Amino acid sequence: MNNAASPVGRIASVDALRGLAVAAMLLVNNPGDWGHVYPALLHAAWHGCTPADLIFPGFLFIVGVSAALSLSPRVALGAAPGPLCAAVLARGLRIIALGLLLQALAWALLHRPEFRVMGVLQRIGLCFIVAGCVAVRWREAWQWALLLALLVGYSALLRAGATLEKLGSLPQHVDTWVLGRTAYEWDATTGVAFDPEGVLSTLGALATTVFGLLCGGLLRRGDARALALTGALAALAGWVWSAWLPWNKQLWTPSFALWTGGLAAFALAAAHVGIDRLGQRPWGRAFGRNAIGAYAGAWVLSVLLAATGWGEWLYGVAFGPLGAWFGPQAQSLAFALAFVAAWAIVVRALDRRGWYWRV
Predict the structure, then answer these.
(1) CA angle 96, 52, 56 (to 5 degrees)
(2) Which ranges of the chain does DSSP label H, i.e. alpha helix?
(3) Minimal CB count within 10 Å: which of 45, 206, 292, 322?
């Protein structure tokens, strides 16, 4: 825990969007009953894009933006790139280690048959390492070139596979070869594995993060118009591209990366104008300043509630009347909102005391 004041030059709109993404993660990850969730709060079964599918790309986009805001000024001031990259690598590895620790907790307490290696924090850590080192060592023109190479190259890899369906796709084959039984989905009978945060699909997630890095440069220059235009053009390109390569979060297709990244950039431009320039309230900022801590704490709490049975009891007893009055979907939503509200109280209290948990 760090009780130091927040760094000089911190941008409220970035904290707010990061916080809203974390709050949305908690909302969709803790429905109380997975059988009665409103469709908008569920990820697309395969191809497509629901509101829930916008959350993780939005967070990775902000990871890239934050890398531009924190690292690029140091490079401009003449900081040595070696130590900066070493610091980026160390932090990224800590994020990955935390993700593995949380997976180990779930594996042990929930008696899961296999230990999962990949996950949300692991993907964040990997993307942060690459995007951070790119921010330190590569000029903006080369960053654009990298983004283009990721989009075109990954698209070519996907199209080189036999199918874009889960079974038989190139990412599924790579996950089977590399992850095996440690993947999110593992069929012991066939030996087939697949992970929505898998190996090859991380290329698409990295494209989202690099796009955030480039948009962070626009935000540094205070060019909200260029930021909004870039977001609109990226979203349009992703929409057009989806006719040939469908949106798919689990594959993190290039069209999905552009569509979600473009929407995130447009949201950042609007938040920058509204919050940073016009002084509107930065909703979600407390979550954003303790993002990893809130995510990790919520994970631990949800695992403990599931392992002890208290979650099922609380859902049935405290929220059961809502299900009887308004239906099971309302009951599920109320539970998820209460979970988010409880953590909102926690991060708000931490923010008031200036306590921030940084990995």
Answers:
(1) 25
(2) 12-29, 55-76, 81-109, 120-137, 140-160, 170-178, 202-220, 224-241, 254-271, 285-289, 291-308, 310-318, 320-326, 328-353
(3) 45
Q: Note down pLDDT in tens along the chain; length 359 residues.
A: 343 333 335 899 999 999 999 999 999 999 999 999 999 999 999 999 999 999 999 999 999 999 999 999 999 999 999 999 999 999 999 999 999 999 999 999 999 889 999 999 999 999 999 999 999 999 999 999 999 999 999 999 999 988 999 999 999 999 999 999 999 999 999 999 999 999 999 999 999 999 999 999 999 999 999 999 999 999 999 999 999 999 999 999 999 999 999 999 999 999 999 999 999 999 999 999 999 999 999 999 999 999 999 999 999 999 999 888 999 999 999 999 999 999 999 999 999 999 888 88
Residue by residue, DSSP assigns 24-77 as HHHHHH--S-TTS--GGGS--SSSS--GGGGHHHHHHHHHHHHHHHHHHHHHHT
Phi, psi of 2 (to 5 degrees): -120, 120
Exposure letters 171-206 (e unless 16+ CB within 10 A, then b): bbbbbbebbeebbbbbeeeeebbbbbbbbbbbbbbb
- CA end-to-end span of the chain: 9
Residue 242 CA to residue 234 CA, distance in Å, equals: 12
Domain boundaries, the chain: 1-35+284-359, 43-91+129-277
Which H or E element spans position 8?
none
Question: Is pTM, for the whole model, over 0.85?
Answer: yes
